[in-house]
Each structure stands twice: as structure tokens, then as C-alpha cells.
Amino acid sequence: MFLGRDELVDEILGFVRSNTPTTLIGTGGIGKTSIALTVLHHELVKQKFGDNRRFIRCDEFPTSLVHFLNRLSVVIGAGITNPSSLALLRPFLSSKPIFLIIDNAERILDPGANDAKDLYVAVDELSQFENIYLLLTSRISTIPPHCRRVTIPTLSQNSARSIFDRIYQDGGQADSDIIDNLLKRLDYHTLSVTLLATIAAQNQWSGPRLAREWYERRTGVLQTGHNESFVATVELSLVSPTFVNLGPDAHRVLESASTRGSLSGSFPRSPIGRRSSMGFAFSR
Asked: How far is CA 193 from CA 31, 144, 163, 165, 166, in A?
């Protein structure tokens, strides 16, 4: 559900026109990747770059310069296996206009990562190609100096409510204050709002029933801040009868979301799951 981001998309399209490399910075689940993909498929970008629009997810390969360059080679179609340096890819990179998204760039730009210095230099060089528009998404602010930083905020209240209503479809005016209060407690965080609306719709809970489920499970969490409120939403989803009845596939989907960073942060131990180095490991 993509709402409330038109101004951000227009701002990024302005950077595309001026070929200013850009980094979208924000917490997990805030909507960075959705915004980047919306730009990738925008008509202006299609007209300017045609089929040379490429997307790299940095959580799909081990963090090292060799693995990054190999993935870059595959994505751009260079046909060079395991290039040892960016120099081997320069002739191909400079041959045509390329729109390149590097998603979850914090994995390769983290100063503590393997080959951190070499990876930073490689990304910095990519940002300086005149024929390449580089768009990064990252949860950290360590980015090449040539990149324009765009901080992704949470949703506006109206946008959060619109997303909730489109998914939920059963709120009604009588529940309006209840829903608005819950969304406020979620800090209008994009993925949190989506999860809450989805589980309410799946279970066909009324506004009062949704509020009751929330308060009975995590009353204390709602008073402490964004991260813990977010994990309470995930837990509410996991214990719903609809979710449980979906079986192991549903758990794998949400576990996959956690490994992408959507559920990362300093979360308390879940009563229905356990923290792992990759996020959450769920049990039925």
C-alpha cells in the first residue's frame, strides 16, 4: 500500500534529472525500498534509462568486495565472473546510461563490515560516473560524499489512516478515535501500520476488539516508544488464529522479512519467538 510519499518521489525524480546520486536513509520498515522501486518504475526513469534499470539487494550475498563486484557484474550484464576490482567493470559501466539501486546498503557501507574501506571506495566511484544514476537505501548515514542524503520520515497521520482503512475495510466512524489512537502509538511507522491493519482484517476484529487485544498483550510496551511498539505489532500478528492457520509458509514469509532488516532493533524477547542473529526465529 503506497500512499503519502508523492512529494518524496518528486524530490528524488528531481535528483534523477540532475543526475545527483541519492541515498534514502531511515529505519527498517519505513518504506525506503518501496520509494526506490516506485522511482525505478516511474515513466520519467523508464524514458531516460529504458531497460538499463538495475536493482541490487545487499542482503542477498556475503559482505565482501568480491561478492559485491560479482553481483554488480551479473546485474549490469557485464559477463565478468568474480572481478577483483571495479576497474574491470569500468568499460561496461561507462558504455550506456544506467539507473542503479543498491538496496540495504548499510550492509556494505558499515565501517565494521568486511572489506569496509574497499567497498566504500567502490560505491563512491559508482556515484561519480556521469552516465550512472545511483540510488542507495540505507539505515546508516555513512554514505559517499557525492550522494545527496534524503531522510525518510514516518507517514503523516492522514496517510497512515488511509493505508489502514484500505486494508482493514471495517473501521467505521464509531471506531475512528480508537484506530487513530493505535496508529499514533505506532508513530505512523509504515510497516507497523500495515501489519496491524492486516491482522485486524484477517480476524475481522472491530475497533474495540483490536484495541482490547492490543492493550491486553502489550499495555506497557505502548508507553515506551517506537521499537517496542513495533515488535508488539509483530507479536500480535503471529498469535492470531488466521496467521497460525496459514502454517509454516506464513512463518517463513515473516522470518524472511525479519532478515531484510524490517524487524531489526533492540527488541525485548518475544513470548512466542526468540531473537537470532538474523532477526526473529519463529515457532508455532
From this structure: 12, 32, 8, 10, 11
